[in-house]
Protein backbone atom coordinates (compact mmCIF):
# COMPACT_ATOMS: atom_id res chain seq x y z
CA UNK A 1 0.00 0.00 0.00
CA UNK A 2 3.04 2.27 0.16
CA UNK A 3 2.45 3.05 -3.52
CA UNK A 4 -0.90 4.67 -2.69
CA UNK A 5 0.51 6.56 0.30
CA UNK A 6 3.15 8.27 -1.83
CA UNK A 7 2.49 12.00 -2.17
CA UNK A 8 3.39 11.68 -5.86
CA UNK A 9 0.76 9.00 -6.50
CA UNK A 10 -0.88 9.56 -9.87
CA UNK A 11 -3.94 7.36 -10.61
CA UNK A 12 -3.65 8.19 -14.31
CA UNK A 13 -0.21 6.59 -14.56
CA UNK A 14 -0.40 3.23 -16.29
CA UNK A 15 0.52 0.17 -14.25
CA UNK A 16 2.72 -2.60 -15.58
CA UNK A 17 1.03 -5.81 -14.49
CA UNK A 18 2.91 -9.12 -14.76
CA UNK A 19 1.19 -12.46 -14.04
CA UNK A 20 3.34 -15.28 -12.72
CA UNK A 21 3.49 -18.30 -15.03
CA UNK A 22 0.92 -16.69 -17.33
CA UNK A 23 2.69 -14.44 -19.83
CA UNK A 24 0.56 -11.75 -21.39
CA UNK A 25 0.94 -8.62 -23.45
CA UNK A 26 -1.00 -6.08 -21.43
CA UNK A 27 -3.11 -4.11 -23.88
CA UNK A 28 -5.48 -3.09 -21.10
CA UNK A 29 -7.18 -6.35 -20.20
CA UNK A 30 -4.48 -7.65 -17.85
CA UNK A 31 -4.67 -4.46 -15.81
CA UNK A 32 -8.46 -4.68 -15.83
CA UNK A 33 -8.26 -8.26 -14.55
CA UNK A 34 -5.81 -7.18 -11.84
CA UNK A 35 -8.14 -4.47 -10.54
CA UNK A 36 -11.15 -6.79 -10.74
CA UNK A 37 -9.40 -9.32 -8.50
CA UNK A 38 -7.89 -6.70 -6.18
CA UNK A 39 -11.18 -4.92 -5.56
CA UNK A 40 -12.93 -8.22 -4.90
CA UNK A 41 -10.31 -9.16 -2.29
CA UNK A 42 -10.59 -5.75 -0.63
CA UNK A 43 -14.39 -5.99 -0.55
CA UNK A 44 -14.13 -9.32 1.28
CA UNK A 45 -11.40 -8.19 3.68
CA UNK A 46 -12.58 -4.71 4.66
CA UNK A 47 -16.35 -4.67 4.09
CA UNK A 48 -19.20 -6.70 5.57
CA UNK A 49 -22.94 -7.49 5.36
CA UNK A 50 -24.75 -9.45 2.70
CA UNK A 51 -26.94 -7.71 0.11
CA UNK A 52 -25.11 -4.41 0.32
CA UNK A 53 -21.85 -3.79 2.15
CA UNK A 54 -20.41 -1.09 4.38
CA UNK A 55 -16.83 -0.71 5.62
CA UNK A 56 -15.71 -2.65 8.67
CA UNK A 57 -15.24 -0.29 11.58
CA UNK A 58 -12.41 -0.86 14.04
CA UNK A 59 -9.47 1.07 15.43
CA UNK A 60 -6.98 -0.49 13.01
CA UNK A 61 -9.00 0.45 9.91
CA UNK A 62 -9.46 4.00 11.18
CA UNK A 63 -5.85 4.52 12.31
CA UNK A 64 -4.32 3.03 9.16
CA UNK A 65 -6.41 5.18 6.83
CA UNK A 66 -7.13 2.03 4.83
CA UNK A 67 -10.42 3.37 3.49
CA UNK A 68 -8.71 6.40 1.99
CA UNK A 69 -6.27 4.10 0.21
CA UNK A 70 -9.13 1.97 -1.08
CA UNK A 71 -10.79 5.09 -2.45
CA UNK A 72 -7.61 5.85 -4.39
CA UNK A 73 -7.49 2.28 -5.72
CA UNK A 74 -11.09 2.56 -6.95
CA UNK A 75 -10.30 5.81 -8.75
CA UNK A 76 -7.21 4.33 -10.36
CA UNK A 77 -9.13 1.25 -11.48
CA UNK A 78 -11.86 3.34 -13.10
CA UNK A 79 -9.40 5.68 -14.81
CA UNK A 80 -7.61 2.67 -16.30
CA UNK A 81 -10.86 1.14 -17.64
CA UNK A 82 -11.17 -1.25 -14.73
CA UNK A 83 -14.33 -1.89 -12.69
CA UNK A 84 -15.71 0.19 -9.88
CA UNK A 85 -16.65 -1.31 -6.50
CA UNK A 86 -20.17 -2.68 -6.94
CA UNK A 87 -21.07 -3.39 -3.31
CA UNK A 88 -22.89 -0.31 -1.98
CA UNK A 89 -26.58 0.38 -1.46
CA UNK A 90 -28.13 3.39 -3.21
CA UNK A 91 -28.24 5.28 0.09
CA UNK A 92 -24.62 4.60 1.08
CA UNK A 93 -23.53 5.51 -2.44
CA UNK A 94 -25.54 8.73 -2.25
CA UNK A 95 -23.70 9.65 0.94
CA UNK A 96 -20.33 8.83 -0.62
CA UNK A 97 -21.13 10.95 -3.66
CA UNK A 98 -22.73 13.93 -1.94
CA UNK A 99 -22.29 13.64 1.85
CA UNK A 100 -25.99 14.48 1.99
CA UNK A 101 -27.40 12.63 5.01
CA UNK A 102 -31.02 13.67 4.38
CA UNK A 103 -30.83 12.49 0.79
CA UNK A 104 -29.30 9.21 1.93
CA UNK A 105 -32.18 8.68 4.36
CA UNK A 106 -34.69 9.26 1.56
CA UNK A 107 -32.88 6.70 -0.59
CA UNK A 108 -32.93 4.25 2.31
CA UNK A 109 -36.72 4.36 2.69
CA UNK A 110 -37.07 3.23 -0.92
CA UNK A 111 -34.73 0.23 -0.58
CA UNK A 112 -36.16 -2.70 1.37
CA UNK A 113 -32.92 -4.56 2.28
CA UNK A 114 -31.74 -1.49 4.18
CA UNK A 115 -34.75 -1.28 6.45
CA UNK A 116 -32.89 -2.89 9.36
CA UNK A 117 -29.79 -0.75 8.90
CA UNK A 118 -30.52 2.75 10.27
CA UNK A 119 -28.15 5.48 9.23
CA UNK A 120 -27.11 5.93 12.85
CA UNK A 121 -25.29 2.58 12.61
CA UNK A 122 -23.17 3.61 9.64
CA UNK A 123 -19.45 3.98 10.37
CA UNK A 124 -19.33 7.55 9.06
CA UNK A 125 -15.70 8.09 9.99
CA UNK A 126 -14.53 5.35 7.61
CA UNK A 127 -17.09 6.34 4.98
CA UNK A 128 -15.63 9.84 5.11
CA UNK A 129 -12.13 8.39 4.75
CA UNK A 130 -13.35 6.50 1.69
CA UNK A 131 -14.80 9.75 0.33
CA UNK A 132 -11.43 11.44 0.85
CA UNK A 133 -9.77 8.74 -1.25
CA UNK A 134 -12.42 9.06 -3.95
CA UNK A 135 -11.71 12.79 -4.07
CA UNK A 136 -8.37 12.06 -5.76
CA UNK A 137 -7.68 14.40 -8.74
CA UNK A 138 -11.24 15.72 -8.60
CA UNK A 139 -13.02 12.37 -9.07
CA UNK A 140 -15.21 13.03 -6.03
CA UNK A 141 -16.20 16.42 -7.41
CA UNK A 142 -17.44 14.77 -10.59
CA UNK A 143 -19.33 12.17 -8.54
CA UNK A 144 -21.10 14.91 -6.63
CA UNK A 145 -21.99 16.74 -9.84
CA UNK A 146 -23.20 13.63 -11.69
CA UNK A 147 -24.28 11.14 -8.98
CA UNK A 148 -26.72 9.24 -11.20
CA UNK A 149 -24.09 8.69 -13.88
CA UNK A 150 -21.47 7.40 -11.46
CA UNK A 151 -23.89 5.16 -9.56
CA UNK A 152 -23.32 2.32 -12.03
CA UNK A 153 -19.75 2.08 -10.70
CA UNK A 154 -20.77 1.50 -7.08
CA UNK A 155 -24.28 0.05 -6.84
CA UNK A 156 -25.01 -3.52 -8.01
CA UNK A 157 -28.19 -4.54 -9.75
CA UNK A 158 -27.63 -3.07 -13.18
CA UNK A 159 -29.77 -4.50 -16.03
CA UNK A 160 -29.00 -8.11 -16.88
CA UNK A 161 -26.25 -8.52 -19.43
CA UNK A 162 -27.45 -9.32 -22.95
CA UNK A 163 -25.69 -10.60 -26.03
CA UNK A 164 -26.25 -7.37 -27.93
CA UNK A 165 -24.39 -5.48 -25.18
CA UNK A 166 -21.29 -7.61 -25.74
CA UNK A 167 -21.61 -7.61 -29.52
CA UNK A 168 -21.40 -3.81 -29.60
CA UNK A 169 -17.91 -4.09 -28.08
CA UNK A 170 -16.54 -6.29 -30.86
CA UNK A 171 -14.22 -4.66 -33.34
CA UNK A 172 -13.72 -6.89 -36.41
CA UNK A 173 -11.10 -6.34 -39.12
CA UNK A 174 -12.46 -4.26 -42.02
CA UNK A 175 -11.76 -7.02 -44.53
CA UNK A 176 -12.63 -10.68 -43.92
CA UNK A 177 -12.18 -13.80 -45.99
CA UNK A 178 -15.10 -16.13 -46.62
CA UNK A 179 -13.97 -18.46 -43.82
CA UNK A 180 -13.48 -15.57 -41.40
CA UNK A 181 -16.93 -14.21 -42.24
CA UNK A 182 -18.38 -17.62 -41.37
CA UNK A 183 -16.57 -17.66 -38.02
CA UNK A 184 -17.76 -14.12 -37.33
CA UNK A 185 -21.33 -15.29 -37.87
CA UNK A 186 -20.79 -18.22 -35.49
CA UNK A 187 -19.47 -15.89 -32.80
CA UNK A 188 -22.35 -13.44 -33.15
CA UNK A 189 -24.91 -16.25 -33.00
CA UNK A 190 -23.16 -17.74 -29.97
CA UNK A 191 -23.29 -14.41 -28.12
CA UNK A 192 -26.91 -13.74 -29.08
CA UNK A 193 -27.98 -17.09 -27.62
CA UNK A 194 -25.72 -17.01 -24.55
CA UNK A 195 -27.19 -16.51 -21.10
CA UNK A 196 -25.99 -13.71 -18.83
CA UNK A 197 -23.64 -15.98 -16.87
CA UNK A 198 -21.89 -17.20 -20.02
CA UNK A 199 -21.60 -13.61 -21.26
CA UNK A 200 -19.86 -12.70 -18.01
CA UNK A 201 -17.46 -15.60 -18.50
CA UNK A 202 -16.83 -14.39 -22.04
CA UNK A 203 -16.04 -10.88 -20.77
CA UNK A 204 -13.64 -12.21 -18.14
CA UNK A 205 -12.00 -14.31 -20.84
CA UNK A 206 -11.55 -11.37 -23.20
CA UNK A 207 -11.35 -8.27 -21.00
CA UNK A 208 -10.39 -9.45 -17.51
CA UNK A 209 -13.63 -8.46 -15.73
CA UNK A 210 -17.21 -9.80 -15.78
CA UNK A 211 -18.77 -6.46 -16.64
CA UNK A 212 -18.95 -4.12 -19.59
CA UNK A 213 -16.29 -1.41 -19.82
CA UNK A 214 -17.54 1.65 -17.95
CA UNK A 215 -19.52 4.33 -19.75
CA UNK A 216 -19.38 2.29 -22.95
CA UNK A 217 -15.64 2.81 -23.43
CA UNK A 218 -13.38 -0.03 -24.50
CA UNK A 219 -13.54 -2.41 -27.43
CA UNK A 220 -12.65 -6.06 -27.97
CA UNK A 221 -10.43 -6.41 -31.02
CA UNK A 222 -11.28 -9.62 -32.86
CA UNK A 223 -8.45 -11.25 -34.80
CA UNK A 224 -8.06 -14.43 -36.79
CA UNK A 225 -5.11 -16.80 -36.83
CA UNK A 226 -2.71 -18.06 -34.19
CA UNK A 227 -3.80 -17.22 -30.63
CA UNK A 228 -2.20 -14.18 -29.07
CA UNK A 229 -1.70 -14.17 -25.32
CA UNK A 230 -3.23 -10.87 -24.41
CA UNK A 231 -6.44 -9.36 -23.15
CA UNK A 232 -8.88 -6.83 -24.55
CA UNK A 233 -8.72 -8.89 -27.73
CA UNK A 234 -10.04 -12.20 -28.99
CA UNK A 235 -8.21 -14.39 -31.49
CA UNK A 236 -10.34 -16.90 -33.40
CA UNK A 237 -9.36 -19.82 -35.64
CA UNK A 238 -9.87 -19.17 -39.33
CA UNK A 239 -12.29 -22.06 -39.72
CA UNK A 240 -14.52 -24.45 -37.79
CA UNK A 241 -16.44 -27.53 -39.01
CA UNK A 242 -19.84 -26.18 -37.96
CA UNK A 243 -21.72 -23.91 -35.55
CA UNK A 244 -22.23 -26.65 -32.98
CA UNK A 245 -18.50 -27.32 -32.75
CA UNK A 246 -17.83 -23.59 -32.49
CA UNK A 247 -20.32 -23.20 -29.64
CA UNK A 248 -19.06 -26.18 -27.64
CA UNK A 249 -15.42 -25.19 -28.15
CA UNK A 250 -16.18 -21.62 -27.08
CA UNK A 251 -17.86 -22.75 -23.87
CA UNK A 252 -15.05 -25.18 -23.07
CA UNK A 253 -12.25 -22.70 -23.65
CA UNK A 254 -13.89 -19.98 -21.57
CA UNK A 255 -14.40 -22.33 -18.66
CA UNK A 256 -10.87 -23.72 -18.75
CA UNK A 257 -8.62 -22.69 -15.89
CA UNK A 258 -4.86 -22.75 -15.70
CA UNK A 259 -4.38 -21.82 -19.34
CA UNK A 260 -3.13 -18.62 -20.87
CA UNK A 261 -5.75 -15.91 -21.05
CA UNK A 262 -7.66 -16.27 -24.30
CA UNK A 263 -6.21 -19.10 -26.33
CA UNK A 264 -9.18 -20.72 -28.09
UniProtKB/TrEMBL annotation:
Family annotation (PROSITE patterns): HECT
Taxonomy, superkingdom: Eukaryota
Keyword Cytoplasm: no
UniProt GO molecular function: ubiquitin-protein transferase activity
Keyword Nuclease: no
Domain HECT: 7-42
InterPro entries associated with the record: HECT_dom (IPR000569), Hect_E3_ubiquitin_ligase (IPR035983)
Keyword entries, A-Z: Ubl conjugation pathway
Region called Disordered, residue ranges: 245-264
Name the record gives this protein: HECT domain-containing protein
Natural source organism: Acropora cervicornis
